[in-house]
From TrEMBL:
This is Amidohydrolase. InterPro entries: ACMSD (IPR032465), Amidohydro-rel (IPR006680), Metal_Hydrolase (IPR032466). It comes from Actinoallomurus iriomotensis. Residues 3-261 form the Amidohydrolase-related domain. PANTHER family: 2-AMINO-3-CARBOXYLMUCONATE-6-SEMIALDEHYDE DECARBOXYLASE, ISO-OROTATE DECARBOXYLASE (EUROFUNG). The lineage of its organism: Bacteria, Bacillati, Actinomycetota, Actinomycetes, Streptosporangiales. GO terms for cellular component: cytoplasm. One of its GO terms (biological process) is secondary metabolic process. Transmembrane segments: none annotated. Keywords: Lyase.
Length: 262
């Protein structure tokens, strides 16, 4: 089974399904989203969508009421394509600890979702995900996905590793290969058994090759669609791996085990 471990709701959803079909991807982990860059028809409209993303990544769009529309989009996509998408739910990091615990139970576990993410703590504030990890641990070790590219810093990655060691039952996935800090991300994941590294949107091909070589059992194929492309992401993995067990792990077997699908 080929599993794209990182994607966001598209508008329209059928366009996403077409991309997965073209890439030969069986299933995709699906996160909610506020920005929709795939809607942009020109630079002006793309700037508007990316401004929403910028605010989100810097903690300026993390209120509970902003989650409702995005959650409804996610629910609609999951209902329309239950055999293709694997839903993850997010929680507002501004909630108090008890509110986060309640949201994880209500909006993730009772909602039938498989994990939590993609979390986007503001730069320098990775420690804000600790209540989420604690709640995920209380729920039996739900996987948690955290944004890894800019504005996430190398210090944030080190803080995430420290938290992962504190909650070893919780699989903690760093997305986008850690962005510009990919070498730090590879080292930290290699040294922290409960951490995983998702490989989307890498700008340097040998970063993907080295990550898979260093941590073959904890690297995950992902596209970060619509920001990345499933065809290109799969081709990248296949370009730097030989046919066989390691490639199969990266393209889906590891994700399947992590998600309880195998």
């Amino acid at each position: 089974m080929i599993i794209d471990a990182h994607s966001h709701v598209h508008d329209p959803v059928a366009d996403h399904i077409a991309l997965l079909d073209e890439a030969g991807v069986d299933r995709a982990v699906l996160f909610m989203t506020r920005p929709h860059p795939e809607r942009a028809a020109d630079l002006t409209s793309l700037r508007r969508e990316m401004a929403t993303l910028h605010d989100r990544l810097h903690g300026r769009d993390d209120q509970a009421d902003t989650y409702r529309a995005a959650s409804a989009e996610l629910d609609a996509a999951l209902a329309a394509w239950p055999d293709r998408f694997i839903g993850f739910g997010s929680v507002p990091l501004v909630l108090p600890d008890e509110g986060i615990a309640a949201a994880v139970e209500r909006d993730v576990v009772e909602h039938g979702l498989r994990g939590i993410g993609e979390l986007t703590p503001p730069p320098g504030q990775a420690a804000r995900i600790e209540p989420v990890l604690r709640a995920a641990d209380d729920q039996g070790g739900l996987p948690v996905v955290v944004h890894g590219a800019a504005p996430t810093t190398a210090d944030d990655l080190r803080a995430l590793a420290a938290l992962a060691r504190r909650y070893p039952r919780v699989p903690l996935v760093v997305s986008q290969l850690g962005g510009a800090n990919w070498m730090d991300a590879v080292e930290l994941v290699r040294e922290t058994p409960s951490m995983y590294l998702e490989l989307s949107t890498a700008s340097i091909i040998f970063a993907v090759r080295l990550a898979i070589s260093e941590i073959p059992e904890r690297t995950l194929f992902g596209s970060d669609a619509p920001y990345g492309d499933p065809v290109l992401a799969r081709t990248t993995v296949e370009r730097v791996t030989a046919s066989g067990e390691i490639r199969d792990r990266v393209l889906g077997a590891t994700a399947a085990a992590l998600l309880g699908l195998s």
